């Protein structure tokens, strides 16, 4: 009897507890509903290679593997690289604004109002282009200051950071040279500014920056040209450039690159570093005669991948970059470039989609024929109970077929 009464007591306590929980749920349910946050939560899926930004660099031993000056240079170069990548995106997506603006007409007062409106519309976009001009001065100064530190054996991290910034500079130059709309927008902007200059604050500063921007846009490859002129004024520039190129080659040969974009960046940097090293006769080292540059090592890389992606739908032709060197000649660049016609044709098939269209078409036809056959086989089995081996073989065949189709789409 005592055991039965205890069971009834436990049941009564459980029922009472459930009733209390139900009562609490009814009373507080309206207040416990999850509401979406009023402010947008910022989230980035891109991992940061250096989240601390070398905040402990003052504690580094100057005689160790990494000195405090080198860590400071790497932190500055990483910030410079991030800023350059933002400019690459802004420049690549830039579209002409001036073509959408109406032509000023009517009386003088109406024309002046239209020119002022055109100036206000174009001003923020032209300022974005001027950021590229200001970036050139910062990139040249910080690149040269960090390159001067690359004198010891422990400078590999700094050299890799320099190569990344150098590639960003090269990409910016290439994108800028393909954007004719920049000069068109600047011309319309200057014309509108000339008619409403009296109504604009800081008119003199805007006038001077407009003239500087016009010269900047008219020059081909202004960032790389300014960087090359500044680098060769540094003592020991040849050794540092060769060390940077050899480190990029070592990264490519050793499989350091996790993503294809990293490998493409290293290849572009190697070709542009050869151009950076080469100077006109009497003005500096000759990249095709320098004993400090391993041309055979770089040539093996260039002959395997002569054309690589640059940015977006743009590509970089590495042999064309080498042909822009002041001392280039087919005989001098024999170690760096393919010289036989058969070798050139075999390389074309490695990157030219048109050359591989025939083989790709046959592979796709074969795939479209084998896929329905596999699906019919799986459908014919229906709900039959299969053995372990038979079920595993079918699952493996379906997996490999789907993977093959994904590879063809890529």
Task: Please give a structural write-up.
β1 (307-311) and β2 (314-317) form a beta hairpin. This protein has helices spanning 2-32, 68-92, 108-147, 156-177, 181-195, 203-218, 222-231, 237-253, 260-277, 295-304, 318-323, 341-351, 357-381, 388-409, and strands spanning 307-311, 314-317. Strands 1-2 form a two-stranded antiparallel sheet. The termini are far apart. It is 65% helix and 2% strand. The protein has 410 residues and is an all-alpha fold.
Strand order of the largest sheet: 1-2
Helix % is: 55-70%
Strand content: under 5%
Secondary-structure element order, N to C: HHHHHHHHHHEEHHHH
* Mean residue pLDDT: 82
Low-confidence stretches: none
Distance between the termini: 76 Å
* Total count of strands: 2
Number of separate helices: 14
Radius of gyration: 32 Å
**Shape category:** globular
**Describe the biggest sheet?**
2 strands, antiparallel
Q: Pairing-aware structural class of the strands and helices?
A: mainly alpha
SSE blueprint and pairings:
Elements: H1 2-32, H2 68-92, H3 108-147, H4 156-177, H5 181-195, H6 203-218, H7 222-231, H8 237-253, H9 260-277, H10 295-304, E1 307-311, E2 314-317, H11 318-323, H12 341-351, H13 357-381, H14 388-409
Antiparallel strand pairs: 1-2
Quickly describe the structure:
Helices cover 65% and strands 2% of the residues. The protein is mostly helical.
